[in-house]
Write a structure and sequence with these properties.
Elements (H helix, E strand, L loop, with lengths): L11 H12 L4 H8 L3 H10 L17 H11 L15 H11 L7
Helix pairs in contact: 2-3, 4-5
Length: about 110
């Protein structure tokens, strides 16, 4: 039987440099440039090495929901919110545009 040769995507030196650099606070983007790889590839490698921490996502605190936008429209049009319930299926961008055109009072979620 013939032996299969497996291509190594990262050398041990590159992995060490990535891990140490990341732990020292170097951005993933900078590390990717240094090793000539994509950011996605470097993130995947750092994840496999157990050192990558994903950026915290913004919490919904203060964010307006689609339900809030539909409620604002209902209040502005003096309608029962249930009458506009199917608008929850619209995109948030569409609802925001509608509120901007229809509502003349300041909206606070």
């Amino acid at each position: 039987m013939t032996e299969k040769t497996v291509a190594v995507n990262y050398t041990e030196a590159q992995v060490t440099m990535l891990v140490e650099g990341y732990k020292a606070g170097t951005s993933v983007e900078d590390l990717a440039v240094r090793v000539g790889k994509t950011v996605k590839s470097v993130v995947a490698k750092l994840s496999r090495e157990g050192v990558y921490k994903a950026k915290a996502k913004a919490t919904g605190k203060g964010a307006t929901t689609k339900a809030d936008l539909v409620a604002k429209l209902a209040a502005e049009l003096d309608l029962d919110p249930k009458a506009l319930q199917s608008l929850d299926k619209a995109t948030k961008e569409a609802l925001e545009a509608l509120v901007a055109k229809v509502c003349f009072t300041t909206f606070e979620a």
